[in-house]
User: Fold 3-oxoacyl-[acyl-carrier-protein] synthase 2 from Amycolatopsis orientalis.
Amino acid sequence: MTGIGLVTPAGIGVDESWNYVLKGESATALDPDLAGLTVDLSCRVPGFDPVAAVGPKRAWRMDRTQALAIAAARQAIEDAGLSSGGWDDARVGVVVGTGLGGMATLEAQHSAMLEKGAAKVSALTMPMFLTNMTAGQLAIEFGARGPNLTVSTACASGATAIGVARDLLRSGAADVVVAGGVDAGVTPMTVAAFTKMNALSARRSDPRTASRPFDAGRDGFVIAEGAGMVVLEHEGHARARGARARGKVVGYGASADGHHVTAPEPGGRGAENAIRTALADAGMTPADVGYINAHGTSTRLNDSVEAATIKRVFGNGPAVSSTKGSIGHTLGAAGAIEAIYSVLALEHGVAPPTANLVSLDPEIDLDLVRSARTGTYRVAMSNSFGFGGANAALLLAS
Assistant:
């Protein structure tokens, strides 16, 4: 992993986002664009301007999702010391994970059709809405003409994308892959749908404490937007050009619960399968892992099942935290953003805290990080789970 880029509710840019998360602060706020809904909490990227990200000629032709991804990918490519003119474009791939695609575009154009008629639907609706168009826009923006893929495993999408990108490199299909996750799902329809499922926190009287993973008082997640992108290269390719390694993807595991469309399998067997597969892929044991960035959504069921699974596999070993306490749940972007936070934990020797963890659920028995904790962390795991029972685990090393 030679380059990383973050556009999150904690800030635009890796340093700003990382430093915010380390403070254990929360980006949750009342959202005026959701006014009138039962739940009107969100975590938005502060000060993000699509025009500044992609230019005025392109911004109006893109969904916010695509602009977020381009901004994060640009950071990652620059961090890797690469440029579109300095690589063999046929050997550069793109893999993007997203859960929703251009949801804001779809909602706006559906409203236009209902209110003004079919003739008022924009001709740009499909290229702005289709889930694969973010990967396509990245290829256009950066001249990447290798494999171009989109994966959608709900809230595991970003992690799945990084795992698939690693496999592309292993197969010899590419020398460089720009990979990660993105979603801009803070829209009325999305929020209304999650609200009907009782998945969202309704703690609007104290928004900053609404997202509280593993806390006894958790009542749901806070919806968020963002993008996390990385540049992955063959180790030999990176070494030949003198590139700095931010970290290594040493293991990847994927599985399905085969249980329920939204609820995790109560025994955590699918999640455990992904975790153990990632460990086996890396040739490592649970004792090798020093830090785990948990999926930790702040929902009753997910946190309980994940905590029990981590305990069963790892015992009392690693430090565990969920950065969703700070930035909310970025849906398809979460796995990629959290993989980057995990790499930064290894790089800086600091495990980020779980914001708003005031009273630990008595049924959860993990070494949860409540304030930034320094230590020697050489291997980290990042867990991601999604609707449909999709599970992904990434094992990362310094």
